[in-house]
Amino acid sequence: MDHRYMALALSLGRRGQGNTWPNPAVGCVIVKEGRIVGRGWTQPSGRPHAEVVALAQAGAAARGATAYVTLEPCSHHGKTPPCAEALIAAGVARVVAAVTDSDPRVSGQGFQMLRDAGIEVTTGVLAEEAARDLSGFFQRVETGRPALTLKLANSFDGRIATATGESQWITGPEARRYVHGLRGTHDAVMVGGGTARADDPSLTVRDMGVERQPVRVVLSRRLDLPLMGNLARTARDVPVWICHGPDLDPLLERSWRDLGAELIACPLAQGQIDPAAALQALGQRGLTRVFCEGGGALAAALLAQDLVDDLIGFTAGLAIGAEGLPGIGAMGLERLSEAPRYQLVETRPIGADVLHRWRRG
């Protein structure tokens, strides 16, 4: 039964993905005598935590119950009291956790606090699934950068636009709606400056009822983005963060700040913004999961530096030809052994298109 209840806790935790940064998206289920008496997941902006939500729902029924939680309960006093203390105060008899928190403020201490209070602790239940769901949080703690998903929507021959730049729409409405759902499970949506100029995207989640829109991130060395475009017009409503190079036109800098954008200075690598440094800067600001939608030059740079954790592709049933714009720019590879390889996770039809998901090996 432990696996069954933990699977439910994991599904609850996924409801918070994209809404809880910089905190992890955790799920919690409280069970007493075979009956679920409380359920919870981390709320928008990361508070209250999943355990607190589930305990509030359970009330007095939590005494003597088992709490299933996808991550080790926190043990430190931050903006809220520790969840380990809340579980102890509620009289929970047993805690089943999927994985240990890698945050040094918590790691192992939450479990020890529970054991010291006489609570039975079981760990490692569905640990692999939990580690995957929480990979962005763990990666930020351990390496400083968020987990990165790269999404590309291509023609059958790997093109994202015709030679004249026409790209709307290669894939169908079902695939585009699916992408909106993917955006909603990430903390930020990221594109390169070329895509921002060519497509004038909004990069928001539409018709999904999300509580917290993802941050819109653009990598633009010179900050030469449309000042009357969608991102500029909505920067005060939904955050826009622009990673830029060291030399800026003071007028452009002042204009974007006045529009409400946050400007993030990043070093250059081979004449362009260093994507590794940009991701470190995003991690420092609390992001744990970033969804990159191209374009080709940014995709190539991310892959070349081995910064892509997950690949999601949509392939449409049309061919554009060699004169079309490739989905991934030049990477300078001479041997197949130099190319990053990913393991296939899933492939299935989405409307008239094909979805394929790949994960770092």
TrEMBL record:
Coiled coil: none annotated. One of its GO terms (molecular function) is NADP binding. Binds 1 zinc ion. Substrate binds at S167, R183, L203, R206, E293. Keywords: Hydrolase, Metal-binding, Multifunctional enzyme, NADP, Oxidoreductase, Riboflavin biosynthesis, Zinc. Pathway: Cofactor biosynthesis; riboflavin biosynthesis; 5-amino-6-(D-ribitylamino)uracil from GTP: step 2/4; Cofactor biosynthesis; riboflavin biosynthesis; 5-amino-6-(D-ribitylamino)uracil from GTP: step 3/4. Its cofactor is Zn(2+). NADP(+) binds at A153, W169, T195, D199, G295, G296, A297, L298, A299, A300, A301. Zn(2+) binds at H49, C74, C83. One of its GO terms (biological process) is riboflavin biosynthetic process. Residues 1-114 form the CMP/dCMP-type deaminase domain. It catalyses: 2,5-diamino-6-hydroxy-4-(5-phosphoribosylamino)-pyrimidine + H2O + H(+) = 5-amino-6-(5-phospho-D-ribosylamino)uracil + NH4(+); 5-amino-6-(5-phospho-D-ribitylamino)uracil + NADP(+) = 5-amino-6-(5-phospho-D-ribosylamino)uracil + NADPH + H(+). Its EC number is 3.5.4.26, 1.1.1.193. Pfam families: dCMP_cyt_deam_1, RibD_C. It comes from the Bacteria. The active site is at E51. Converts 2,5-diamino-6-(ribosylamino)-4(3h)-pyrimidinone 5'-phosphate into 5-amino-6-(ribosylamino)-2,4(1h,3h)-pyrimidinedione 5'-phosphate. NCBIfam families: eubact_ribD, ribD_Cterm. In the C-terminal section; belongs to the HTP reductase family. In the N-terminal section; belongs to the cytidine and deoxycytidylate deaminase family. PANTHER family: 2,5-DIAMINO-6-RIBOSYLAMINO-4(3H)-PYRIMIDINONE 5'-PHOSPHATE REDUCTASE (PTHR38011:SF7), DIHYDROFOLATE REDUCTASE FAMILY PROTEIN (AFU_ORTHOLOGUE AFUA_8G06820) (PTHR38011). This is Riboflavin biosynthesis protein RibD.
